[in-house]
Amino acid sequence: MSSVFPVLVALTVLAACAAAVYGPASRFAREYLDALLVDALRGADGTAEEPALRAAPNRRALLLPHWQMALFLVVACAAGCAALGSGRWWELSLALPMMAALTVAGSTDAVCHRLPNGLLGPAALWAAACVVIEVVARLAAGGGLSQALAPVGESLAAAAGLGAVTLLLALVPSGLGMGDVKLCALTGLWLGRFGWAVPVAGVVAGLFIAGTVAIVLMVLRLARRDTMIAMGPYLIVGAVAAWALAVA
């Protein structure tokens, strides 16, 4: 296969994902935030006093298209170096739509401490599609049925396991919310086909990064022990890093 073909495929997928991030995805995030603020102002969901929502209007600029585009391109370039450097260009093509959705979802969480289902849902569907593509690729390569179907069981088991563990953590004062639980289950579904250790490492890395940042903020007196931080961006960083190590 020509070395030009993988690059063209990756660039095509990148262009499509970048257009989605710049257009409908970032627009959805801004509309989601505005609706959330309106409901909070009216007291419709009892969140008017949440510090994250009081500060959200000042951080709304993070959801503007050019900021979203820049952040996604940074993530995509890092992912491209990992995948293309190892010759696994198809993994990059599969990962870019996921990273596009997670980039906007993480930015939204950073602004208002919410991970919208409208972004996590399509990401979960794409993660499931990646598993199906993996099964088809194994069958096309001449693998047996049991071997070809292995990614299905691995991904479902990782999603269920991580979802269950993080749900238990969310039920105690751990800083995790239901959006984070869904994100961890999504990480398992997406990365489980690489083996259970990959998604687990991604979640653990994300929690470690979040904890480290929280400690630094407390040392600098920019946060207190009871200050809530958005966990989503750190869990996403951990998931993407685990993906990069799996394909590198």
From TrEMBL:
Keywords: Membrane, Signal, Transmembrane, Transmembrane helix. It comes from the Bacteria. Gene3D superfamilies: 1.20.120.1220. The keyword Signal applies. The chain crosses the membrane at residues 67-85, 123-144, 156-176, 196-220, 227-246. Residues 1-18 form the signal peptide. The keyword Glycosyltransferase does not apply. This is Prepilin peptidase. It comes from Actinomyces respiraculi.
